[in-house]
Each structure stands twice: as C-alpha cells, then as structure tokens.
Amino acid sequence: MSGTAEYLLIQGKWAAKEGSRGAAFAYLERALENDPDDRQRVEAWLWMAEAAEDPDEKRRYLEYVLGYEPWNPRARRRLALLNGILDSADLVDPDHLPQPTDNPQPEPAANRRYTCPQCGGRLTFTPEGNTLQCDYCGRRTSPSEALSDLETVDEEDLVTALATTRGHIRPVVAGVVECPGCGATFLVAPEAISFSCP
Fold it and tell me: Which one is predicted more confidently, 133 or 93?
C-alpha cells in the first residue's frame, strides 16, 4: 500500500504546485488513508499546510508535523512565518547564500567590565574561575549575579536564525578590543573568550 500512498502523494504535490487546492487535498487525504510510511505522512501534512488558505488550518497541519517530528526544519520555518517570528523578506536560499565581502573590516568587540555593587571597584575572576572578586573591598559574587546586574540574555531559535542571513555570518579574522581602563587597542582572534590588558 505504501506504493499507492507514494503515487497519491506525488499527485497531491503536483496539484498543490499547480494551485488546484481541492485536488491537492483529495490526493493528500487519500495518501494518508493508504497506510503511508512516516516520511510520506509528514510530506502529506506539509503539502496540506502549503495548500490550505486558512491560517488556522495551516497551523494545524504544521503542528501535526511537529508533533510527529519536532525537529522538522520546514515545518518550524513555516510556523515561524505564520506566527510572525520570521519575515519572508529575510529568508535566504540555502543553496545560494550571500557571499561575504572580499575584505571585511574587524569590528570592535563588546568587552564586559564587571563592577562591584558595593564599592564600584573592578571585579575580576578568582584563580579557580568560578567567582568574581572585587580588587578593592574583596567582595565575592558569582558570574550569574554579576550578569543579572548588567543585562539579560535573549535566546533565539536556531532554526529561525538559520533561515535568515544573520545565521550565516562568519566571524572576521580578528576583533578589535579597547581596554576601558587605559584606552589601549588590541586585535584578538574571534575565538578568544577573554583578554587581559598587559
């Protein structure tokens, strides 16, 4: 029966591409009734979401796919578009990614300086590396507490980022770091996590 499901799936895809919504649904629904394998079931739901006109109906089919395959990138990308998380103008074709500029200029890296909430002095990592200690008053704090005083981190969906050009940006050869204490400027490798001013 899987061969019948495959034939009906191909006919349903063709009808959906041609814009024959009614025929697409007829073929795809029959494909789902003819004992499809996992791949065929997911493909049928994806093409039903493509052919559907009602956003709620599209969302329902995409959620079927994600309930079956939570990692499915096509369904996650389409649902992100439907929910307004992604803009269709920001999407890139993974087969034709934008080329980086020939000679990218290093950009200044945003260095983080921790200050003591008690005296305003500079916080530095202790030798064991799991706490920050004030150079002046000796107060200790955890890095998470120091970060919470500065800013919050907004997480982004990987699949959503990969669908845009922002997800395909590569680091430049070197970054520029300016010491907030003395004003000296240094070039550091993009993989450098921290840097001490000599």
Answer: 133
pLDDT of residue 174: 65
Spatial separation of the C-alpha atoms in residues 4 and 30, rounded to whole Å? 9
pLDDT at 108 over 80: no
Say if residues 188 and 195 touch (Cβ distance below 8 Å).
yes
CB neighbours of residue 21 within 10 Å: 14
| Three state DSSP letters for 15-82 | HHHHCCHHHHHHHHHHHHHCCCCHHHHHHHHHHHHHHCCCHHHHHHHHHHHHHHCCCCHHHHHHHHHH
Instruction: Give the model's pLDDT for residue 28.
Output: 93
Q: How far apart are CA 193 and CA 27, in angstroms?
A: 55
Contact 75, 41 (CB under 8 A): no
Q: In this structure, what are the phi and psi dihedrals at residue 138, rounded to the nearest 5 degrees? A: 85, 5
Report, as an integer, the average pLDDT of 68-90.
85
